[in-house]
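Private note to self, pasted from the team thread so I don't lose it. Backbone tokens:
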């Protein structure tokens, strides 16, 4: 069995580090974390990219920037569809 985490991102800079910490510090690490950013304008994308780099998570954590705003439902569905 594998575990995956799907996160839909949009202007979440205020709390995103805390959310990422809760995932990273789990006793049982997920096999894959997929995050889709839906056009954040508050630095969320940069915060997440820096976080992945800082903790060396690039092998299992993936950050995707949508080319266009999909809306929250389609953005979350996209993230889920990219998890195994």
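Design output:
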């Amino acid at each position: 069995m594998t575990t995956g985490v799907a996160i839909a991102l949009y202007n979440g800079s205020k709390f995103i580090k805390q959310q990422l910490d809760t995932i990273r510090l789990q006793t049982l690490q997920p096999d894959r974390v997929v995050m889709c950013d839906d056009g954040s304008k508050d630095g969320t994308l940069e915060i997440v990219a820096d976080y992945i780099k800082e903790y060396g998570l690039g092998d299992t954590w993936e950050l995707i920037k949508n080319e266009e705003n999909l809306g929250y439902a389609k953005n979350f569905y996209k993230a889920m569809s990219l998890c195994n």
